[in-house]
Amino acid sequence: MYRDPVESLEPLHHRQAAIRTLRVGMIGIGTVGSGTFRVLARNRADIAARAGRSIELVMVAARNLERAAGIVGDSVALTADAMHVATHPDVDVVVEVAGGTGPARDWVLTAIAHGKHVVTANKALLAVHGAEIFAAAREKGVIVAYEGAVAVSIPIIKALREGLAANRIEWVAGIINGTTNFILSKMRDEGLDFAAALAQAQALGYAEADPSFDIEGIDAAHKLTLLAANAFGMPLRFADAQVEGITALQGVDVACAEQLGYRIKLLGVARRQAAGVELRVQPVLVPAAHLMAQVNGSMNAVMVKSDAAGLTMYYGAGAGSEQTASAVIADLVDVARLDGVHAAQHVPHLGVHAHATNALAVLPRAAVHTSHYLRVPVHALDQIQTIAASLAERKVPVRQVALAAERPGVGPQVLVLTGPVEQGALDLAVHALQARAEVAGPVTTLRVESLEG
Question: Is 123 among the residues known to form the active site?
Answer without folding.
Answer: no
